[in-house]
Amino acid sequence: MSLGTILLIVLILILIGVIPVWPHARSWGYAPSGIVGVILVIVIILFLLGRL
Question: What range defines the domain where residue 21 resides?
Fold first, then answer.
């Protein structure tokens, strides 16, 4: 596996992990998953362009 593939898998797992499902996390909204989602989109674009 290449480094880009491993990074992509880790970012997808992080994106799933930041979904606010716990009662104390509901007040956070979707900001944590939004930030991770933006990072994931950037990594996917870099991966597709062959820069990663």
Answer: 1-27
Strand (E) or helix (H) holding 24: none
Beta-carbon neighbour count of residue 27 at 10 Å? 7
Instruction: Tally the domains of the chain.
Output: 1
Instruction: Please tell me the pTM assigned to this model.
Output: 0.57
Q: Is residue 9 part of a domain?
A: yes
Q: What is the pLDDT of residue 20?
A: 67
pLDDT at residue 42 greater than cutoff 80:
yes
The alpha carbon of residue 50 and the mean position of all alpha carbons in its chain are separated, in whole angstroms, by: 19
Identify whether 40 is part of a domain: no
- Where residue 28 falls among pLDDT bands split at 50, 70, 90? confident
Which tokens go with 14? 């992080």
